[in-house]
Amino acid sequence: MRIHCKIVVIAVCFGVFLLLYFFGGNAADDPPLKEVEEDNYFPKFSGLRNNVASKLTKKTLDELHIPHKQPLTYRKVSKVSSRGGNAIAKSRQRSDMGVGRPASKRARAEEVMHLAVVACGNRLDETLTMVKSALLFSIKSIKFHIFAEDPLTSQFEKGVILKDVDSLLYVDTDVLFLRPMDDMWSFLKAFNTTQLAAMAPEHEIPKIGWYSRFARHPFYGVTGVNSGVMLMNLTRIRSTLFKNSMIPSGLSWEDLLHPLYQKYKNHITWGDQDLLNIIFHYNSECLYTFPCQWNYRPDHCMYGSNCKGAEEEGVSILHGNRGVYHDDKQPAFKVVYDAVHEYPFEDNLFQSLFYPLQTKFLDTVNTLCGRIPQVFLKQVEKSMRTVYEKKVVRHVRPPPK
């Protein structure tokens, strides 16, 4: 009997030991309660995706503020022990900061681009639409220099003397940016040691160009240049003596313009553009010429397409001279102007700008300039994707291994 009791006691003890071992091992594999609670605290990733989408569709003018606001800074978040919790915690951190570029990139001193325009007469509406197009598609900060007649000065900020500005892009009021101004600004890096300004040729084909047929004064190259889009290194311009037909020793820019005008005033038709052509006729080494798609005008399509760069890459900067934004002579140009003019900043670019633009272009396909819509639309679509990626989508670095 005693032997049986001992066997029963040993069996019971062994069973208890097994139970303790079993439950103890399973408990060690369970995640701590604190960790589970922290995981449940963070939102699901679908919420982050919806947050990005909502910020895109509700984009405000503040996102395009010039200059940019202070750079975002990362906030420290306590680490969670498990890999899943750590990943979600980092996602929560990025969600709290909103949409923007990484702090490591924004923290660097940002280059400011300078854009100048002269607004005269009834050009206020055109000027504001041009400014809007520059804001819509550009990435870096832009400082605007607007020169206006007395009746318009109250519509703009106070005038500024540009003596401290190193480089500048000048455009006419009837210009629209269809891609970031940043890309035009990069031409400054292509200047050689003597070049101090950049313009596009007035025409691609000499036999139908204006200067090659009608000019009564010297002009640059074979077809002359168009001053509607002019990139300038002002530092070099201020320090250069320009060759001319009046004084052998050369004259500075400010000393040259008035006597040049007095000499040729009875022979010029296009004002400042003619004077610039005369200057660079005698100083051709100072001028850099960029392709026609950076100053695309009705002349490039109204006699048949003659801008190969626009056919291949699309129009980068649209120049609606001849008043084509405000009449029905070139509907393709008017369609683009109206789309930018009517676009409200708070709306989605694709829904309120690009899709209406595509639809309206269907009415222009029977015209010479509108027969290839992609010439006008290619860079617009590409630029909107660039703006979306730069200003809306946050590119997250992979976690260190």
UniProtKB/TrEMBL annotation:
Predominant location category: membrane
SUPFAM superfamilies registered for this protein in UniProt: Nucleotide-diphospho-sugar transferases
Membrane-topology annotation of the record: Single-pass type II membrane protein
Gene Ontology CC, one term: membrane
Signal peptide positions on this chain: 1-28
Annotated compartments: Membrane
InterPro entries assigned to the protein according to its UniProt record, in alphabetical order: Glycosyltransferase_8 (IPR051993), Nucleotide-diphossugar_trans (IPR029044)
Protein name per its UniProtKB record: Glucoside xylosyltransferase 2-like isoform X4
UniProt source species: Salvelinus namaycush (Lake trout)
Lineage: Eukaryota, Metazoa, Chordata, Craniata, Vertebrata
The encoding gene: LOC120060041
